[in-house]
Request: fold
Amino acid sequence: MTTDFVAKKDYFSPMHTAEHVLNQTMVRLFGCARSKNAHIEKNKSKCDYFLSAAPTQAQIEQVQRQVNEVLAQHLPVRAQTLPRLEAARIAGLDMSKLPADAGDMLRVVFIGDYDACPCIGAHVQNTAQVGRFMISSWDYADGRLRIRFKLEDCVPQESQHS
Reply:
């Protein structure tokens, strides 16, 4: 953990960490890319995914169940600054959202062995702090799945630097 890190995005850290777990869950269940369009807020958030077919209600329930199973594992959340070439060797690491001026050193956030993602936002220190992930609604149109979600029973805290 870098002690002098200042988050460049003012996300609510439990919700932002849940977004990372949701993204990896979508990649694993549907083989899609991570969300390219997300709106992360303290009370409710949304992420868009591009799929070739609409998911079933059972698949949406599976997403919620799997995200909660991962969160319940109490996985450590840590950030590590790595050279870009070293980060590129991490299996499954998606660097497609990096801005052109990202530089040669990247901050990669790891959620246990479940997810690794370059990120400039604040996160909790452990998935136990996130609480219960709840999909409040979803819709599918023109190849875009929008998932709206909230958290219940998250541990109130100040933003963490991990």
